[in-house]
Amino acid sequence: DADVTQTPRNRITKTGKRIMLECSQTKGHDRMYWYRQDPGLGLRLIYYSFDVKDINKGEISDGYSVSRQAQAKFSLSLESAIPNQTALYFCATSTSGGSYTGELFFGEGSRLTVL
Amino acid sequence: AQSVTQPDIHITVSEGASLELRCNYSYGATPYLFWYVQSPGQGLQLLLKYFSGDTLVQGIKGFEAEFKRSQSSFNLRKPSVHWSDAAEYFCAVGTYSGGGADGLTFGKGTHLIIQP
Lengths: 115, 116
What we know:
- With about 120 residues, chain A is an all-beta fold.
- Chain A contains no helices and 11 strands.
- In chain A, a hairpin with a 2-residue loop joins strand 5 (about 40-50) and strand 6.
- The termini of chain A are far apart.
- Chain B is built from no helices and 12 strands.
- Chain B has strands spanning about 5, 10-15, 20, 25, 30-40, 45-50, 55-60, 65-70, 75-80, 85-95, 105, 110-115.
- In chain B, strands 2, 5, 6, 10, 11 and 12 form a 6-stranded mixed β-sheet that branches. In chain B, strands 3-9-8-7 form a 4-stranded antiparallel β-sheet, with no helix packed on it. In chain B, strands 1-4 form a two-stranded antiparallel ribbon.
- The chains are: A mainly beta (about 120), B mainly beta (about 120).
């Protein structure tokens, strides 16, 4: 089983609908991240969380919200989806403290299409 | 704020030929540097990383990268590419502060095409 699991893997929805992408991890990491990938733009950070009570906005947080339900779970929500939120979304985790190396461990991605 | 530039959007290389993918970063202190690979339809896999020590770093799948502080570069190399190396390659930079960082900043990627 994957260490970082994203659901759903693929989703097609309509403009204005609320969408939730879920991420769970078995790596025991404190830090979790949501990135968005668009062709030609690389990966851009949406939100990140250092622990259950610590949520931070990334580069492109507008139109998104997150919830850290537990150390192992980090969800991304689109309250009212719009077509330019069509993208591939990645969840990632990392260690912290003395064992930190900066490396991110990625899930397999959730492809979202907003019509 | 840190940034990463990958000057080449696409690169085409013949199978068996050598490869170099360029990466330049902008950051005021010594950064953490990474190369990730994304095969079609897949997530991102770490190829190698640098955060201290020897500036020539060995990674998986026969890749290596060299950190050159004077040039703010971290170029990825492979002496002989295989058709399975066709993928998207991302360079990323991370910063360290107080036990962790705000994630990594990624370049826009280089798409590698392998010719038979």
